[in-house]
Amino acid sequence: MTDPAKNPLFRFPGLKPAAWFFFLFLYAPIVVLLALAFNDNQQATIWTGFSTRWFGIVLNNDDLVRAFKNSITVATTATLAATLIATLAALGMNRARFPGQDGINALISLPLIVPEIVTAVATLLFFIMLGFPLGLSTVILAHTVFCIPFAYLPIRARLEGMDPRLEEAAQDLYADRRRTFLRVVLPQLWPGIISGAMLAFIISLDDFVITYFVAGAGATTLPIYIFGMIRIGISPEVNAVSALMLAVSILFVAASWLVGRIRR
């Protein structure tokens, strides 16, 4: 491991204060939000004492629970579909060599760099042109599409790191392609699949922009519900809901990171 004191980056003047300012700017609002989620006061921004009652109020809010169920339904369905498509695409791109492969690989990853508002408008126009009624099904379809790159990249990275000689050895021992895949490839690939699925799930669960454009009546998800609550003012319920979503996000991202580090 490189000694931090010998790292040439630390010779730049002002680097450490800039790094501290970066982390402060990034995480201080989140720390404040978490603290205020346990505030007993009716005023969301004035601390008067510790309380967990706002979490109980949030969990007894039928509209909010319904929005949460919609979010879980969309995220789960989109994650399963996107992960399956991403796995097949990664296997195909890893095994085959054909002209234009780099271009197709870039096209699969393109939604990661396209502004989300562009994807939202394009998806909405697509559904209108085809006459799709907006609802939970259009949200699931849109989420499936933009989650594919997030699932694809960890799976492809895992495939790139696998030793092809293990497959060759299995085939030398008279294992057919199906048995080689189930006994050799899949056991090595599953950490990448799980990691990609977790990333896709959390990206779908947190998405607001695309969902806001393609959701119809009765398809309100949790981020859209929170946005509606904020429009009439920041309340302690908003802080509590945001804290719960942050906890779920941290849990999934941490699990994805841990699974991605698993070695065979």
Structure write-up:
This protein is mostly helical. Helix content is 73%, strand content 0%. It contains eleven helices and no strands. The chain has helices at residues 15-36, 53-59, 62-95, 101-109, 116-130, 136-160, 164-172, 177-206, 209-214, 222-231, 236-260. Helix 8 (177-206) runs antiparallel to helix 11. It starts with 14 loop residues before the first helix and ends with a helix. The model has no long low-confidence stretch (mean pLDDT 85).
Largest sheet: none
Rg over CA atoms: 23 Å
User: Uncertain regions: pLDDT < 50 for 5+ in a row?
Assistant: none
Going by helix content, strand content and strand pairing, the class is mainly alpha
The tally of strands reads 0
Integer average pLDDT: 85
Number of helices: 11
Through-space gap between termini: 23 Å
Helix content: over 70%
Proportion of beta-strand residues = under 5%
Q: Please write the string of helix (H) and strand (E) elements.
A: HHHHHHHHHHH
Oligomer class: single chain
Ordered list of secondary-structure elements with their pairings:
Elements (H helix, E strand, L loop, with lengths): L14 H22 L16 H7 L2 H34 L5 H9 L6 H15 L5 H25 L3 H9 L4 H30 L2 H6 L7 H10 L4 H25 L4
